Amino acid sequence: MLTRRAALAGLLAASPAMAWAATDYVITPAQVADGIWMIHGADAPIEPANGGAIANITIIATPDGTVLCDCGPSVRYARALKAVAEKLTGKPVVRVYVTHLHPDHGLGIAAFDPAIVAALPGTIDALRQQGRGFSDAMYRILNDWMRGTDLALPGRTISKDAEDFGGRSLRLLALSGHSSADLALIDDRTGLMIGGDLVFHDRAPSTPTADLAKWRESLDRLKAERHSGLIPGHGPFDAGGTAAIAQTRDWIDWLETALTQAVANGLDMVEAGEIAIPDRFSTMAAARYELQRSVSHLYPALEAKLLGRVDLPG
Amino acid sequence: MKRKASLGAALAVALLVSSTARAGTSYPPDPLGSPMWTAHAKTLFGDDPVRFDPRVKVDFPEIAENQHSFPVSVDARGIEGVKRIILFADLNPIPVAIDYRPQGAEPYLATRIKLDQRTPVRGAVQLASGEWLVSGNWIDAAGGGCSTPPVSRVKGDWADHLGEIRGAAWPLAGGDSRLRLSFRHPMDTGLVANIATYHLETLIVKNAAGKTLGDMEIWASVSEDPAITLMPMAKAGDRLTIEARDTNGRDYVAQVDVAKQSPMPIALAH
């Protein structure tokens, strides 16, 4: 006779919930310059299938030790990253830069001593204010992948425009636009640029904390800075160093123009999320998804700007 | 509003009644498998015939980026003789968002609603025969859309902007227009500590002759600073008057002149 408990166990075993149990992250660094490796995140939304590992991570070998730029969405990711990076370079991690506040880039800092984790002052302020909300959202979507990940704040505030690691110097650019504080880095030895989320490549830019005018200024600055290849915040490595900047600029220009036109034509937000995306963006992953998110972020302000007052004095 | 009070009371009761309580139920089984389907159907549709019909186009984004403001449209223009549209979310504590009666308007409604959790979002349209046609889908959402304070309450500036209405109207091919309105209003749900229920509750659109083209009841599950899109019958240059009232009895009046331009192509207007 089938007992109730056995039946329940059978149900559980067949339940799709089993698929939610997190397995280990697969971390595969690819060398992109002398002593620099990029880990290419999934070019997808944050979802259980990828454990939130969607951001690109950079590993830099220096005479003083290993430097990381961003460290992933969770403690589990960051621990695995640390092990992979230290094995690769043969030296302990001595610095972790967090490029901006978004959780896919920086929630993993909880795995490191805060004294070696550095961020712009604006990033630390933003994490203090919004970090809890981002952390909650990540737990809701990723559940077991996030286990043990506490919100931690970087212990070092970046106040200089360069940092030297035993002869390998990294330039630190304090910018903004994707968020209120965006860090970009340039490796002096190779000229390699690490764009953070100011630069997306074949993966649609996300805008939850964006200021598009400042974002454009920052892209102009990155374009003007001498550099070789470029590691974008999301998407494949840009060996030439110019295509990803141009593509990101093209997308945010199109986005703002298209949404402005949508308001002017009387489209509702649902319809604005369904407008045609130009063919030139067909190589961009998650384009429709990010367009619909951007409509949510940007449309109300455009409506307030473009629709006139119609109320009569009561 | 008598009608509204009775609907509200019925809804409150429905929330307490088990979905199996209705003896001799004749509602069709819910394709979305919602635990609240029968209870809501009983409250909203009573003994009227009900069927699911994909011609009721309930459209929304693939992701609820903001659970405080989730865009939804209900488009029943493919159906003859629609006299009423109800937009509701099964698992919201305030399920109904808008109850709209288009009289001289296309059966189309778009707005933004709060989501308190993962829920079915549905449109139900009633025909002159009394029959209800229902459609919708599930949307996943982070919690708390109805139970966290509105931004203007946190900032404290809600009263400075109360009564501001923005809008515009565009002529469409076919004799109707597209009317877009956005109100500044906190739309308090009553589910946040120490903030009483306070929301827009009625809205009427009239033409220059004073004829009502559409009227609706609005619930606090509509997002803060409500944005509403309708398709009243009006030509380029026509003047539309909008009268609204909130739960404190404050009246709002706006006038929108339909833009003097060539009718927009249907494709653009969707």
Structure description:
The complex is a heterodimer of chains A (314) and B (270). By secondary structure, chain A is an alpha/beta fold. Chain A has a domain of 218 residues: Ribonuclease Z/Hydroxyacylglutathione hydrolase-like (Metallo-beta-lactamase, Chain A, 4-Layer Sandwich), CATH 3.60.15. Chain A contains 8 helices and 13 strands. In chain A, helix 6 crosses helix 8. The radius of gyration of chain A is 21 Å and the shape is globular. In chain A, 48% of the residues are buried. In chain B, a hairpin with a 6-residue loop joins strand 4 and strand 5. The N terminus of chain B is likely disordered. In chain B, helix 1 runs antiparallel to helix 2. Chain B has a single domain, classed as SoxY domain (Immunoglobulin-like, Sandwich), CATH 2.60.40. Chain B is mainly beta and 270 residues long. Chain B starts with a helix and ends with a helix. In chain B, the strands form 2 sheets. Chain B has a 9-stranded mixed β-sheet with strand order 1-8-7-4-5-12-11-14-15, with no helix packed on it. A 6-stranded antiparallel β-sheet of chain B has the order 2-3-6-13-10-9, with no helix packed on it. Chain B is globular, with a radius of gyration of 18 Å. The interface between A and B is large, with 31 and 41 residues. Strand 13 of chain A pairs antiparallel with strand 9 of chain B.
